[in-house]
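Data availability (excerpt). The following record was deposited with the supplementary files.
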Amino acid sequence: MNTALAFLGRTTTLRDVSELGVQSNGSYFKLLNDFICGLSSDIRAQTIVRPKSASQVRKPARVSSDQVSNIFSIPVTIDHGGVGLNQRLIDSRLAVVTYNETTIPMNMMFGFPTIALWDPKYVRLNKQAEAVYHQMFEAKILFHSPQLAAEHVTEIWSDIETWWNSPQVRQARENYCTHYAHRARFPALTVASVIADNL
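Predicted structure:
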């Protein structure tokens, strides 16, 4: 059985939230730290944080994975990209994704247990997407509170499959896939299209 929790996070540039409506590093890093601190110590010991690679050719992160380790107030394992993302997921039993990009539709389409966590102030959705994402919120796939997300991970950790395959979660996943995964030729563009004011 896989034992790791893959915590997939992006790193953002420091921006003026009031002008651009973009999440600053400070609030984003606080969300990450609050989630990690909210996990029980046994789950935290199995958690691997994988930040977006600063050396990535397309859309690189602005902060190195070495710098990311400094945002956590407690020790946590950082994946510096030595293992491919697919292998990291195979070796994990749950992914927590902190950005609304291709990882979510790919994980939903392939049925990989996933929790999404972000501040809704920085992810505005169009009307159609609001209903789909609200269903994910109700099914406890999507969280806006790092503390509640950590509590949920602790609650389901011993039996993730029962939660992931429960009727409410399956219905939310299937509805998401119908809109944003199965019919999507280019998942990144599909996800981008649900974000308000993005087109």
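Summary of structural features: The chain has eleven helices and six strands.
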